[in-house]
Structure formats: structure tokens, C-alpha cells
Specification:
By secondary structure, this protein is mostly helical. The chain contains twelve helices and six strands.
Length: 323
């Protein structure tokens, strides 16, 4: 029997050779009479080696977790630069301060019902060109570019809508927080702000992707509106000479003989930089009619020419005047 055992040992595979070396290190005999005991001792050696390896792995993992836990987490938009607009930064911090997920969810629903820019989109703007792709609900985003004297540049004002209430809340948040900024400032916004605001916790993966698509579409829309406004702002004469916007604009001054509403309308319309502006008070023609509040300023007739209307349909021109 011993001879057969020794003969077999000459043809052992490398794995079994390793078994022999392990037995030798434990001062074990490879003889047949101690074979059962050796197998038990070998099993114990393997078990000890496995436990040592597992312990090393757990220690390393514990160290990694400890290091990770010591990394500071951004708790507000002030802790990290995400290129947020002032209003978006304020709203992000407000949402991150809400401790309960259900309260954040209800706040989005409240915005869906009360932000007017997300509830007054005209049917003329609900066209395929304004539809946001990749959203679970149907979402439309449109806007205008208006020159801001304060910023010395064109700013973008958005409107939007959705057939889903929660999605409309997300639209309302973005429309409210991105409007009033230049296209360049809008491009700087990092979508990761939804994690700091903890909005991501209230969204399914599908709605989260839709939210990211909304931001992407609004950035693209902002660039397109800005480019169109700048192109429309270029005034050329018949012979090809170019007039500056300041030379082309008609600055209608306040008229002390007119009422406060008349002068307020004229002052507000200067933001469109009109080349021609005529405002006629026709209130006397409607005396005694509904809507006449007896202060003499109830009905006006307006004729205005401005390059800001270039390429816009009638509905959007009216929206630009009432903005």
C-alpha cells in the first residue's frame, strides 16, 4: 500500500504538490496510515488561510469606508461651484433644507400650479419644435430673448408646460430659475444641482432622465433665441450701411400732460428699443362701458415698430408687449 501511495505521489498535479508542502510545513506524514488525519489537518490549514485572507479584506474595506466617510459632502450650493443662477442657487438651498421627501414633492406640485410661466403657454407654442424629447410626459419649452439695459446683453425668458403635474412642477422650477439670465450664464448651469437640492430622491429614473433632457433643451433653446435676437438686432440701410441700435431707437419721453398709465406704458415699451412708437388714449370713446374705471385711462391704441419682433408670429409679438 505504501509503495502504491508513493508511486501516485510522483504523478501529483501542482495543486496536490502544494498540499504536500503544506503538510510538510505542519510536520505531517504523507503515509497511508495517517492519510485521514493529514486530510483533516490540511482542511484546517486551508480554513486558517481563508480566515486570514478574509480578515485582511475586511480590514482593507473598513479603511476604505473610513476614508470615504471622512470626505466632506456638499450640503448646499455654497459648498461647490455649479454655475447656478442667483435664483436657482436660492431655490436649491431652499429645497436642500427641507428634511422630508414628501414635503419636497408637495413643493414641486405647488410650483406646478402657481408659477404662471408654466401655466400660460399659448397653443401656438405647443409645436414639435418646442417639444422636449425623452420625457415620460409631454413637455414643451419656448422663450424669447429681450435686450436688458441693466446687463447690457440679451436675456432669455422661458415659458413651458406639461401634461403631467409633477413634470410641470419641474418645468416651473427651471423656467422660474433660468429666466432673466443670458444664454451664456444658462450654459454654465451644472445639472448636478438636483442632487444637492435632493430633488433626485423624489424622481423615478425615467423622470430624472426627463429632467436632464429639459435642462439640455433649455440650454439649446437659449442659444438659438440669443442668436436670433442678435441677428434681428442688426439694422442695415438700403445701401448696406449699418445703423447702431441707439441711432435707430426712438426714445419717447414722458408727457406731463398725459396720465400715469400712459407714461408707464411708454416707459415699459422702451425695453423693446422701438424705431417707431405711437400711443393714443381712446378712453373717451368707451365712457360708460365695461372696463372703464372712470380715471380716463382705460383704452389705448398702440402702434409700435421694433426689430425685436423680427421672425415672431402675432401671438409672440403680443406676448413680448405684455411681458
Amino acid at each position: 500500500k505504501n509503495k502504491k501511495t508513493q508511486t501516485c505521489c510522483h504523478n501529483l498535479s501542482p495543486a496536490v504538490s502544494f498540499w504536500k508542502s503544506t503538510c510538510s510545513s505542519l510536520n505531517l506524514s504523507t503515509g497511508s496510515r495517517c492519510l485521514a488525519g493529514n486530510i483533516m489537518r490540511f482542511s484546517l490549514a486551508v480554513l486558517l488561510a481563508s480566515l486570514a485572507s478574509t480578515e485582511s479584506f475586511l480590514v482593507q474595506r473598513s479603511l476604505r469606508n473610513d476614508v470615504a466617510m471622512r470626505k466632506p459632502l456638499a450640503s448646499s450650493s455654497r459648498d461647490v461651484d455649479l454655475g447656478l443662477t442667483p435664483e436657482l442657487k436660492r431655490v436649491t438651498d431652499a429645497f436642500s433644507a427641507i428634511p422630508d421627501e414628501q414635503l419636497r414633492y408637495k413643493q414641486l406640485l405647488y410650483m406646478a400650479q402657481n408659477v404662471k410661466e408654466a401655466n400660460n403657454m399659448p397653443p401656438s407654442s405647443k409645436i414639435p419644435e418646442n417639444k422636449v424629447p425623452g420625457c415620460l410626459s409631454t413637455v414643451y419649452i419656448d422663450g424669447t430673448a429681450v435686450y436688458s439695459e441693466e446687463k447690457g446683453d440679451y436675456i432669455i425668458n422661458f415659458i413651458g408646460d406639461s401634461d403631467g403635474l409633477l413634470t410641470r412642477g419641474l418645468v416651473a422650477l427651471l423656467v422660474r430659475c433660468l429666466s432673466g439670465n443670458t444664454a451664456q450664464d444658462i450654459q454654465k448651469v451644472d445639472p448636478q444641482f438636483i442632487k444637492i437640492a435632493k430633488i433626485e430622491q423624489s424622481l423615478t429614473p425615467g423622470r430624472n432622465n426627463g429632467f436632464l433632457n429639459m435642462i439640455r433643451s433649455m440650454k439649446e433653446k437659449a442659444l438659438a433665441l440669443d442668436a436670433a435676437a442678435r441677428e434681428a438686432g442688426k439694422s442695415t440701410t438700403q445701401g448696406g450701411a449699418t445703423d447702431s441700435a441707439e441711432e435707430a431707437a426712438t426714445n419717447v419721453q414722458a408727457d406731463p400732460s398725459k396720465g400715469p398709465k400712459y407714461n408707464a406704458i411708454v416707459a415699459a415699451l422702451q425695453a423693446l428699443r422701438p424705431t417707431s412708437l405711437t400711443l393714443i388714449d381712446n378712453s373717451h370713446q368707451h365712457a360708460g362701458h365695461a372696463g372703464n374705471d372712470m380715471d380716463g385711462e382705460s383704452h389705448f391704441e398702440l402702434q409700435i415698430i421694433a426689430e425685436a419682433f423680427e421672425g415672431l408670429n402675432l401671438v409672440k409679438r403680443h406676448q413680448l408687449i405684455y411681458m
